[in-house]
Amino acid sequence: MRLEGKVAIITGGSLGIGLETAIRFAKEGAKVAIAGRGLTALEEAASLIRNVSSEVMTAQVDVQAKSQVDRLVDEVIERWGAVHILVNNAGICGLSSFLDITEKDWDEHMNVNLKGAFLAGQRVAREMMERGTGGSIIHMSSVNGIKAEAMQAHYNVTKGGMNLLSMSMALELAPYGIRVNALCPGFIETRLTKSLIDDPRAIADYVKTIPMGRVGQPEEIADAALFLASDESRYMTGHNLVVDGGQVIKLA
Ligand SMILES: NC(=O)c1ccc[n+]([C@@H]2O[C@H](COP(=O)([O-])OP(=O)(O)OC[C@H]3O[C@@H](n4cnc5c(N)ncnc54)[C@H](O)[C@@H]3O)[C@@H](O)[C@H]2O)c1
């Protein structure tokens, strides 16, 4: 068991990549707290995680709200005494041409994807420092944080920001044994990408941009998250780990 005795918080843990990561961590012995906005989705996710572990808790949290993020961390500490792993996974991705992005859309992307990661990262890092436990913080970034994709300027900027947030936190938190890394998935089959996957012609064209010739699965990102959470990556911090079937290395 690679995470035996560890306590992990996974934001956006009720669906997609977050849920698969929660299941993977639970299989490896972690106590897992999943946070998300929808109660029903959280309960359904918890019942799936309970198939592999009884040590699971759910919290209805909007990561944009500091008070809700603080309450989540308080509840986890009260129940399990520490936090060793944080996965800042909650995220949204709208599609809009640059000229049509509204101020509301812009703010929402910044607040959920970037401010949410800052709030949870800062609070959890303080706990890790005070308890002297060290830990691993993982930002679920994207290849869109490395290269720009049309129709997603607001999303691209949040993921580029997450990569810099990871490096900035890694620099300051390394002396306390806290590692901070970004995981950059390519195109993964989840609710977020469903509309493209459900369009046979569009997805066939899109897959041509991926050297490995297929889209990724949430389990493949969960495996990389497990590596970053575990001691196997103990000398890695401030790194962007790309898991994308080769998509970003392609020039044309
Ligand atoms: N699917 C992909 O191709 C892909 C690629 C690169 C990066 N990512 C990133 O991975 C992460 C997970 O994406 P996914 O594909 O599993 O999407 P998803 O839509 O299936 O899941 C997103 C999760 O985030 C939660 N969430 C959204 N807004 C929230 C908020 N304000 N507060 C709390 N929780 C909130 C949702 O409830 C859900 O649990 C996102 O950060 C996304 O940007 C996804």
Automatic annotation (TrEMBL):
Top class in the EC scheme: oxidoreductase
GO molecular function per UniProt: glucose 1-dehydrogenase [NAD(P)+] activity
Matches recorded under SUPFAM superfamilies: NAD(P)-binding Rossmann-fold domains (SSF51735)
Gene3D superfamilies, A to Z: NAD(P)-binding Rossmann-like Domain
EC number: 1.1.1.47
Ketoreductase domain location: 6-206
This protein's UniProt keywords: Oxidoreductase
PROSITE patterns: ADH_SHORT
Similarity comment: family membership: Belongs to the short-chain dehydrogenases/reductases (SDR) family.
Name of this chain's protein: Glucose 1-dehydrogenase 1
Species whose genome carries this gene: Paenibacillus allorhizoplanae
Annotated gene: gdhI
